[in-house]
Amino acid sequence: MILVHAYVWSQPEHRDAYRAGLRALQESTLASDEGCLDYRFWESVTEPGAFVCVEAWTDRAALDAHLAAPHHTAGSAALDPYRARPADVRVYEAHPTSL
């Protein structure tokens, strides 16, 4: 399984528009992308406009297909005018384990 933590930031005055764009990206990803196990955005409780997308993919091929998908490239481009700074994306290989 591949896990992704994508940290993204909106300009303060465009937070609502940015959040709407993230919601649209989440909906299109969950509806369209095979191999997507989970894809959710969360906003920081201490830093307004700071979001993280927590993603889970069956494998790297599924993630790569998502990154190349038209809905992802268009959705990401639509967010560009509202970004405060570049994304910080971290990709991990994960193996289930018990606590």
Automatic annotation (TrEMBL):
Pfam family, one: ABM
GO molecular function, one term: monooxygenase activity
Segments crossing the lipid bilayer: none
PROSITE patterns: ABM (PS51725)
Residue span(s) of domain ABM: 2-92
Keywords: Monooxygenase, Oxidoreductase
Protein name in UniProt: Quinol monooxygenase YgiN
